[in-house]
Amino acid sequence: MEELPSTAIGIKVNEGIVLAAERRLSYGGYVLSKSAKKVYNVDRFGIAGAGLFGDLQALTRIMTANIKEYELHNERPISTKAAAKLLSIILYQNKYTPFISEIIFGGIDDSTPQLYVLDPLGSLLDDVYAAVGSGARVAIGVLEAEYSQSMQLSQAKELAIKAIKASIERDITSGDGIDVLTIDTRNIINAEFVPY
């Protein structure tokens, strides 16, 4: 499968998770938008992705509805792992007409950070850091060189920004600023935009 346009990153540390992605929306050599948000807060979770922008938006809406339905039906909050498995099932059910998106999904369960990576067909991997999209090759090099599980959440956020900036420098489909979402072990969610 061809690399999906964009760059998105997820990092898990003891203090929480960080999701980040750049904002350029391009098709071929054409920049369609410079303000496409690819990092979303869904309930208590975060989703970041690379690929077709419309598919990422659709998956976010589908997950929002399915999480609410699960919690109403079961009368308890869904865990991050269960929500990630639900997303995996949704992706796999659509394998013949797939969502053309690579997804990084994260949240906090019992003060423990969780980070998952999913491909367009629903493969689900638990990892400590991940990079997806066409800029992932550059970003993963930065993450591998500097990541430590014991780093503070603020350091992980700076590392995510650094990795996305490196991708922006080398990947034509990445650029126009960085959205960053952090979730700490108390489930406090912060989102910010970093111009670049």
UniProtKB/TrEMBL annotation:
The 20S proteasome core is composed of 14 alpha and 14 beta subunits that assemble into four stacked heptameric rings, resulting in a barrel-shaped structure. The two inner rings, each composed of seven catalytic beta subunits, are sandwiched by two outer rings, each composed of seven alpha subunits. The catalytic chamber with the active sites is on the inside of the barrel. Has a gated structure, the ends of the cylinder being occluded by the N-termini of the alpha-subunits. Is capped at one or both ends by the proteasome regulatory ATPase, PAN. Its main location: cytoplasm. It is an enzyme of class 3 (hydrolase). GO terms for biological process: proteasomal protein catabolic process. Keywords: Autocatalytic cleavage, Cytoplasm, Hydrolase, Protease, Proteasome, Threonine protease, Zymogen. PROSITE patterns: PROTEASOME_BETA_1, PROTEASOME_BETA_2. NCBIfam families: arc_protsome_B (TIGR03634). This is Proteasome subunit beta. Component of the proteasome core, a large protease complex with broad specificity involved in protein degradation. It catalyses: Cleavage of peptide bonds with very broad specificity. It comes from Acidianus manzaensis. Its EC number is 3.4.25.1. InterPro entries: Ntn_hydrolases_N, Pept_T1A_Psome_bsu_arc, Pept_T1A_subB, Proteasome_bsu_CS, Proteasome_sua/b, Proteasome_suB-type. It is found in: Cytoplasm. Residues 1-5 form a propeptide. Belongs to the peptidase T1B family. GO terms for cellular component: cytoplasm; proteasome core complex, beta-subunit complex. The formation of the proteasomal ATPase PAN-20S proteasome complex, via the docking of the C-termini of PAN into the intersubunit pockets in the alpha-rings, triggers opening of the gate for substrate entry. Interconversion between the open-gate and close-gate conformations leads to a dynamic regulation of the 20S proteasome proteolysis activity. GO terms for molecular function: threonine-type endopeptidase activity.
